[in-house]
Structure to design on (77 residues):
């Protein structure tokens, strides 16, 4: 199981539309709007890191209005 936290920037005014789209995805465990350097943060879950990459590249970055992402992956101790 792979967990990732994705910081997302969007074009001004598109925050709510992107939030409403992403919150419906089964891979999204949590999703919050932010103030500051990023507009949204999403906690996503996939079977492995390849699946995590697939979600970020082919789903999140493919959304019209998403301008930037930064992905932080979970670690195990």
């Amino acid at each position: 199981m792979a967990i990732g936290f994705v910081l997302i920037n969007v074009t001004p005014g598109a925050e709510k539309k992107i939030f409403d789209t992403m919150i419906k995805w089964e891979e999204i465990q949590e999703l919050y709007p932010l103030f500051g350097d990023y507009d949204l943060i999403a906690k996503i879950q996939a079977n492995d890191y390849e699946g995590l990459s697939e979600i970020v590249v082919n789903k999140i970055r493919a959304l019209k209005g998403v301008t930037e992402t930064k992905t932080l992956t979970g670690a195990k101790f």
The longest strand covers residues 2-10. The chain is about 25% helix and 40% strand. The two ends are 14 Å apart (CA to CA). Residues 1-71 form a domain with the Alpha-Beta Plaits fold (CATH 3.30.70.920).
